[in-house]
Amino acid sequence: MLEDDAELAPFATGGAWSWSSKLYEEAQKRKPRQTGRRKKAEDDDGGGGGAAPQAAVSMFRLRYENGELPIRLDQGHGKTPSKRQVAWLVHILDLDLNYYMPIFLDGLRELEQPYSLLATEALKQLVAVAGPAHRMLTLLEMLVIPLQKLLRDDDPRIVERALDLVALLTTCDAVERGGMGLCGRALVPKFQKLCPTLNALRESMPQFEQKVMQTLELMELHGGEEACKKIKSLIPTYQSAVEGVSVSKTFWSVKAA
Question: pLDDT tens, 41-52?
Answer without folding.
Answer: 444 444 444 444
